[in-house]
Design brief:
Layout: H1 2-20, E1 29-38, E2 44-47, H2 51-68, E3 73-76, E4 81-85, E5 96-101, E6 104-109, H3 112-125, E7 142-150, E8 156-162, H4 170-182, E9 187-191, E10 193-194, E11 197-198, H5 207-210, E12 214-215, E13 219-220, E14 227-228, E15 233-234, H6 239-250, E16 255-262, H7 267-272, H8 301-317, E17 322-326, H9 333-337, H10 339-347, H11 353-370, E18 374-378, E19 391-394, H12 399-406, E20 411-413, H13 416-419, H14 443-448, H15 458-461, E21 464-469, H16 479-486, H17 489-498, H18 506-522
Parallel strand pairs: 2-3, 2-4, 4-6, 8-9, 8-21, 9-16, 16-17, 17-18, 18-19, 19-20, 20-21
Antiparallel strand pairs: 1-7, 5-6, 5-7, 10-11, 12-15, 13-14
Length: 544
């Protein structure tokens, strides 16, 4: 009887603990004690005498000082808030242990990355005003006594951003990275080239941006209406801006994965260099309508050399282990009609045009591998045979990911059914909402996704690296609109990537999300559910 009573009391206590701890993503273990620690102006933040660790301590000091108005100093070694190197191997590269006691706060981790994630949880234990960019008065800066051990479920946790359909300025990209880091995600997938615009400076081929970054006009309204705004549109990032973004992301322990589309989605590149296409005498123009174009790269040696030269500059810029080559939605019409392509299929003993796509992808994979990197591509790269070192990003459902994992290839799950944030997040028939491509992916749907399908054996399941949310920007005109479509679904996918399957509960998540929205308010995030003007314009009021 005593044991039963003890179990009931523990259960009630555990529920109470979670009611006071609204951390997102949900930690692995939380033990709450009675009482709270109070931050004061004399508090010091201690960290090991290592550049990466002191960087984390400086970031914490900066945010606390801004929000509280106190001047909090950092010191080497022990402080009132201390970052400590842990010898606990179970924490791994990204895990941490957070202890709040009457003596102060300790964040233990094996790496500075783990310390950074511990810092994010500490900030979420404080009042939401801690995320303010200016001092907030009349706030009691307290942290509950708690012990947290937290380790992520997956090593790959990310968000993707398409800047080709609609260009996003550097400051908007940085804010996107801030929100990735806030939610303990570690990958920013940057879609930089497509039919409707080439957005990255390549020194060897200046016309990729002088010509390929500009289109004559943009579709107005939905694709099905076939209307255009008759207004030129363009934009690209210089290599210096790319470096700036990469450094910004590195400071927040976010890896930036560049995507250079091939062999399809090539129209912007062909507008600049028509000799790379299947009809070199034709005048190509940067795409103005949404959707897929038949114009693709012709796999001549000249074209492959061009792609390798482009990727050489990309690899020089981006330290990412992964280089994304797209590989999706490559129509075969022009290859099937091309004598050169058909002769190449026969010469290389390929089965068909799908085999020709595989031929191109394998050539590029070999090149990327020789540079010490790994190629990643959308699940169409499975067609015609998978390149030996390829990692697959499964977007057309989970089947491509399952197939790849069974063939011992690594996989990132990002299916349209759950993780495409350019889809409506509520039925547009039920209330007025901004234009979207179509479909319906609710936050409940996103949260319900399990990246590791039951059909995989435990050994095959190890190839599921993690999960990613995607946003394509055909209908996303502004950074404000971008935030509206991604959040809070992006918060849900962050918890899917971090929290164990057993610890997930949507009702609990929804309660924590209501608290979390107050943090997003201070950060000025234009999430779905935030106040907007009466006309539903894509300019949200500034949050106080």
């Amino acid at each position: 009887m005593k044991r039963i009573l003890f179990t009931i009391l523990c259960s009630l206590w555990f529920c109470t603990a979670w009611s006071q701890v609204s951390i997102i993503p949900k930690p692995t273990q939380v033990l709450l004690a009675k009482g709270e620690w109070t931050l004061n102006s004399k508090a010091k933040i201690g960290a090991p005498a290592d550049e990466k660790w002191t960087h984390v301590a400086d970031m914490l000091s900066s945010q606390l000082s801004k929000a509280t108005g106190m001047t909090l100093k950092t010191v080497k070694g022990k402080g009132d808030i201390s970052f400590v190197v842990s010898g606990d191997a179970s924490l791994g590269e990204e895990g941490y242990r957070l202890l709040v006691t009457p003596k102060g706060i300790t964040i233990q981790s094996q790496t500075a990355r783990g310390a950074f994630y511990g810092m994010q949880s500490l900030l979420q234990l404080l009042p939401a005003a801690v995320f303010s960019d200016k001092a907030v008065a009349d706030i009691k800066w307290v942290v509950p006594y708690v012990t947290i051990k937290d380790v992520p479920r997956y090593g790959y946790r990310g968000l993707m951003l398409d800047v080709c359909r609609h260009f996003m300025p550097v400051e908007a990209v940085k804010k996107y990275i801030d929100l990735i880091a806030l939610h303990k995600q570690n990958q920013f997938h940057w879609h930089l080239t497509d039919d409707q615009g080439w957005r990255i400076e390549i020194k060897k081929y200046p016309e990729l941006t002088s010509i390929g970054s500009k289109r004559a006009e943009t579709m107005k309204g939905h694709y099905t209406e076939e209307k255009y705004d008759k207004t030129p549109y363009g934009g690209f990032y210089t290599q210096e801006q790319i470096k700036e973004v990469i450094k910004y992301a590195e400071d927040r322990f976010v890896n930036v994965i560049p995507e250079i589309e091939l062999p399809g989605h090539a129209l912007a590149a062909l507008a600049a260099y028509p000799q790379l296409g299947n009809n070199p005498d034709r005048i190509y123009k940067v795409g103005t309508r949404w959707g897929v174009y038949d114009e693709v790269f012709m796999p001549r040696e000249e074209t492959l050399q061009f792609l390798e030269n482009v990727l050489s500059e990309v690899i020089e810029l981006f330290p990412s282990k992964y280089i994304h080559i797209g590989g999706d939605e490559c129509p075969k019409t022009q290859w099937e009609e091309s004598r050169f392509a058909q002769d190449l299929i026969k010469k290389e003993n390929l089965k068909d045009a799908h085999g020709l796509q595989s031929y191109v992808v394998k050539r590029i994979d070999k090149f990327i591998t020789a540079k010490g990197r790994r190629m990643i591509g959308w699940d169409e790269i499975l067609e015609g045979g998978l390149s030996p070192n390829a990692t697959v990003m499964s977007w057309r459902g989970i089947d491509g990911g399952v197939t790849a994992a069974k063939e011992n290839h690594d996989v990132v799950m990002t299916p349209t059914t759950h993780n495409y944030f350019d889809y409506y997040q509520i039925d547009p028939k039920t209330q007025k909402v901004p234009l979207a491509i179509g479909g319906l992916v609710t936050i409940e749907k996103t949260y319900s996704f399990d990246p590791t399908p039951d059909v995989l054996t435990p050994e095959q399941g190890k190839h599921i690296l993690g999960v990613q949310g995607n946003i394509w920007t055909e209908y996303i005109l502004t950074p404000q609109y971008l935030e509206y479509m991604v959040f809070p679904r992006g918060v849900a996918v962050a918890e899917v990537g971090w929290t164990t399957k057993e610890n997930k509960n949507f009702d609990d998540f929804r309660k924590r999300l209501e608290v979390h929205k107050k943090r997003l308010d201070y950060l000025g995030v234009n999430y779905y559910g935030a106040p907007i003007n009466d006309k539903f314009e894509y300019v949200w009021p500034t949050k106080k």
